Amino acid sequence: MFEENFPLKQISHYKIGGNARYFFKAKNTEEIGKAVLKARKIKAPVFILAGASNILINDEGFDGLILKPDIRFIEKNDDLIKVGAGVPINQLLDELASHNLSGLEWAAGIPGTIGGAIYGNAGAFGKEMKNIVESVIVFDISRKIPKIIKRKNNECDFNYRSSVFKQNPGKEIIIEAVLKLENGNSQHIGEEINRNLNYRFHKHPLEYPSLGSTFNNVPLAEIDNDVAVNFERTIKADPFPVVPAAYLIAEAGLKGVSFGGAMISPKHPNFIVNILDATAEDVKNLIQLAKNEVKNKFNIQLKEEIEYLV
Prior knowledge:
CATH architecture of the largest domain: 2-Layer Sandwich
């Protein structure tokens, strides 16, 4: 049932990481339940992996089961879309555009799955997943007997790049979701998708493997007033006023700084890119360097948007 000694580097967007003792790709809820029960029986810890586009996998790998929910379906009911957690974001975008449904254009070009996007309340251009999530079906594996439950939007505790699922990792596996979109114009939807794709192409270092933004942007409300006045020209809505982490890292003089095979991108300093077969340890060193230098220069503590598999 499980693949053994699975090389996680193969499925990581970063192309970094060791081997998992066990790996299983589940196509439905029944398979997830069986995998969890088998892992319990052999006393193997379980880690839930979505699209592997926002997680730094340890060089030593994982001595347990990596469980990847790969539930893929899309069902339309007027302006409501029921979608499996394993559906890639860009696949769903294509489907929405074909039905003239608007509300997810901001996510064009973001790698990963819908389940992962809900887990981290992904967002861009001032919009977030929480704006379109109607409800989420999850498999609660924290119980002695795992149980399927439904969470409405207000029960998901969506916050900036966070949710109840991210706050309690490994307890609830996102199975599917219902998204509420708006009726739109196919031409306008296509134009916005292309505009966002072009923005990422020109602004992001897509020529190298990365995990996207390493750090959250810093909410202006968390910065002391006497420090905040220095950032008036850099503030953007994300969806509330924030100071971009990329600006802080650049001002700390870290653009292009490298360690081992990893580098803080000179094109977008909030991206740490894999330029030469980097290790997770290389990336961790640059993360700590960025946090230290920004703290020393601005007295601001950067917080990782990425997660770690340790």
